[in-house]
Design goal:
The complex is a heterodimer of chains A (209) and B (253). Chain A has 209 residues and is α/β, with parallel strands linked by helices. Chain A is built from six helices and six strands; from the N terminus they run βαβαβαβααβαβ. Chain A has one domain (3-200): Rossmann fold (3-Layer(aba) Sandwich). Chain A has helices spanning 12-23, 37-47, 71-98, 111-114, 120-140, 175-186, and strands at 3-6, 27-29, 50-55, 102-108, 145-152, 197-200. In chain A, strand 5 (145-152), helix 6 (175-186) and strand 6 (197-200) form a beta-alpha-beta unit. In chain A, helix 1 packs across helix 6, helix 2 runs parallel beside helix 3 (71-98) and helix 3 (71-98) packs parallel to helix 5. The longest helix of chain A has 28 residues, at 71-98. Chain A is globular and about 45 Å long. The termini of chain A are far apart. By secondary structure, chain B is of the alpha/beta class. Chain B has a single domain, classed as Rossmann fold. Chain B has helices at 17-28, 40-52, 68-82, 106-134, 145-149, 155-175, 193-210, 219-230; strands spanning 8-11, 32-37, 57-62, 87-90, 137-142, 180-186, 241-243. In chain B, helix 1 links the parallel strand 1 (8-11) and strand 2. Classes of the chains: A alpha/beta (209), B alpha/beta (253). At the A-B interface, helix 3, helix 4 and helix 5 of A face helix 4, helix 5 and helix 6 of B.
């Protein structure tokens, strides 16, 4: 059975992705809730032959005026998104290399592309995932590892909240839309795609950003 | 470029090559420049250089950019002495570009994100109240071409710079109603002390040969990008990155 490791698999997006990948025959692993880098590394070690890592990174996010984002809120956001993704990739890299390759999918948001008032910490954290994706795609390619990003404009911090409930395609983005994109990249369709970002937003981000 | 007379500018990491170049240019345009660095001697020497050349007015600020409360305390003192800060250049940074993923430990990762992302975030927070009260502000962040292009190493550095791209766009949206712009420059390889230490003289020369211009930029040429964002004429430019990374010869089709 092929293994997938999903961070924040207990959150809405994580659950939906896990359910879909299970139906495709993946065995799903995750980390303890609120885990630090050490427990994340340990969980990845015990999961065994991981072929797919989903850095789902669904942090607690509350819209805040910039001046009201304190150091703890900032640190929790950066740790829950950037730091967790970084050390998850570091931990799966030798596992995937040993098994002849793998795929990494970073779940982000369109916010770092279109901007967002009241979400500076969220946007900064998700912004790191864009550059991580471009970098890891290059650094890990010799080990046959593909790294891509899916910007999920669903749940919190979405374009819908910023007036995009009517996307150019006429309906809000659903979690299933993200799940389908992830499943595509995880499948054969994603075999020659690396270092790319797919913004699943019904066309919203292309309008005037 | 327009005159910056009467304005107060804070430049972080201004003891270094690029920061001191920004400081000299901004002081020469008439702003009072607060030269921040963690190294007191470096900050003092840039201040003296500006004052001795009678090229404007400057004062030092010495604190660790990763210590948010220290930055706020130092900014309060500076505002008391000189007035509200209306220009902030987030320039402080470190390198780590050669590090491989497997070799970046938690301490190195945290230092990279603390200096670049947390440092910029809370430096902005320390000046934003003043900018809002004045109804004017220019914030210029420093990223890297590597945030866009990625690289085969230094993913913690590249990721930290990507976070600042996100921060730049988020705050541009949030601060636009207050007459405050937020932009970023991406310098590319510059013969700074930081890059010289990483690549060496031979490495710098090899990089220069790869570029379409056959040479590295001068610090002053990178400063010209910052000066564009500060100009009165650039009031509508916000949320943008000026990528000053030169194309490589092989990239020109």
């Amino acid at each position: 059975m092929t293994s997938v490791f999903i961070t924040d698999a207990d959150k809405p997006m994580g659950k939906a992705i896990a359910k879909r990948l299970q139906s495709e025959g993946y065995e799903v692993f995750t980390h303890p809730a609120n885990g630090d880098a050490a427990s994340l590394k340990e969980a990845i070690k015990t999961a065994g032959a991981i072929a797919l890592l989903i850095n789902n990174a669904e942090p607690v996010f509350e819209r805040l005026v910039f001046e009201e984002i304190d150091e703890i809120t900032f640190a929790n956001m950066m740790n829950g998104v950037a730091r967790m993704a970084f050390f998850a990739v570091q931990a799966v890299h030798p596992v995937m290399t040993k098994n002849g390759g793998g795929k990494i999918i970073n779940i982000a948001s369109s916010a770092p592309v279109r901007g967002m008032a009241g979400g500076a910490h969220f946007t900064a954290a998700k912004g790191s995932l864009y550059s991580f994706t471009r970098s890891w795609a290059q650094e890990l390619a010799p080990d046959n590892i593909r790294v891509n990003l899916v910007a999920a404009d669903v749940t919190t911090g979405t374009a819908a909240e910023d007036g995009g409930s009517e996307t150019p395609l006429g309906r809000p983005v659903k979690i299933d839309d993200i799940v389908e994109t992830v499943a595509f990249l995880a499948g054969e369709g994603g075999d020659m795609i690396s270092g790319q970002e797919i913004i699943v937003d019904g066309g919203f981000t292309r309008v005037g950003f | 470029m327009s005159d910056l007379g009467g304005q107060i500018a804070l430049i972080t990491g201004a003891g270094g090559t690029l920061g001191s170049s920004h400081a000299r240019a901004i002081a020469a345009k008439g702003a009072h420049v607060i030269v921040h660095d963690i190294d007191e001697g470096a900050a003092q020497s840039v201040v003296e250089n500006i004052l001795e050349g009678a090229q404007g007015s400057a004062s030092p600020m010495v604190c660790d950019i990763t210590n948010g409360s220290a930055v706020k305390a130092e900014v309060s003192k500076a505002v008391n002495d000189h007035g509200e800060i209306t220009i902030l250049i987030n320039n402080a940074g470190i390198t780590g570009n050669n590090a491989l993923l497997k070799d970046i430990d938690e301490a190195f990762f945290d230092r990279m994100f603390d200096i670049h992302v947390k440092g910029a975030f809370f430096a902005i927070q320390s000046v934003i109240g003043g900018m809002k009260s004045v109804g004017r502000g220019r914030i210029v962040n420093t990223i890297s071409g590597r945030a866009h292009s990625g690289a085969v190493s230094g993913s913690h550095y590249n990721g930290a710079k990507g976070a600042i791209v996100g921060l730049t766009r988020a705050l541009a949206t949030e601060f636009a109603p207050f007459g405050i712009t937020v932009n970023a420059i991406a310098p590319g390889v510059t013969p700074s002390g930081m890059t010289r230490a990483r690549l060496g003289e031979d490495g710098l020369a090899a990089r220069a040969k790869q570029l379409v211009s056959d040479r590295l930029p001068t610090p002053e040429e990178i400063t010209s990008g910052v000066m564009f964002f500060l100009a009165e004429e650039a009031a509508i430019v916000t949320g943008r990155v000026l990528n000053m990374q030169q194309p490589r010869k092989a990239e020109v089709v």
